[in-house]
DNA sequence: TTTCTGACA
DNA sequence: TGTCAGGA
């Protein structure tokens, strides 16, 4: 199960292939890199090389875009994902207290339900939301 | 030919 | 986000 993840992380696809696989323009793909949503490797000639994991992430980003979520919202999603990953790692050393659990569940509920202040929920208001 | 960075009638 | 320039 480790060999598989290794292959999916191998950056072997040039941007032209990624364009066809994701239906995104080179402009968009490079822009998402600037926004730190993907981190392609660079080959000897400074060409961006993407891995299958990058493809998945770009497809995910494209789906969010189709759902009407803006860049700020998408960045928010990944930033939170990272924060929670780090938080989870911390949990391994120090078990959560009951109050921690309640706080996390509350934040989770507010985020998913969209009941939080709109300043903290930068998603675009459209028919899908 | 393909991709890169920077820039904007 | 599209698109053009100018170089690799």
TrEMBL record:
<dbReference type="GO" id="GO:0003700">
    <property type="term" value="F:DNA-binding transcription factor activity"/>
</dbReference>
<keyword id="KW-0678">Repressor</keyword>
<dbReference type="InterPro" id="IPR009061">
    <property type="entry name" value="DNA-bd_dom_put_sf"/>
</dbReference>
<dbReference type="Pfam" id="PF13411">
    <property type="entry name" value="MerR_1"/>
</dbReference>
<dbReference type="GO" id="GO:0003677">
    <property type="term" value="F:DNA binding"/>
</dbReference>
<dbReference type="InterPro" id="IPR047057">
    <property type="entry name" value="MerR_fam"/>
</dbReference>
<keyword id="KW-0804">Transcription</keyword>
<dbReference type="InterPro" id="IPR000551">
    <property type="entry name" value="MerR-type_HTH_dom"/>
</dbReference>
<feature type="domain" description="HTH merR-type">
    <location>
        <begin position="12"/>
        <end position="80"/>
    </location>
</feature>
<keyword id="KW-0238">DNA-binding</keyword>
<keyword id="KW-0805">Transcription regulation</keyword>
<protein>
    <submittedName>
        <fullName>Glutamine synthetase repressor</fullName>
    </submittedName>
</protein>
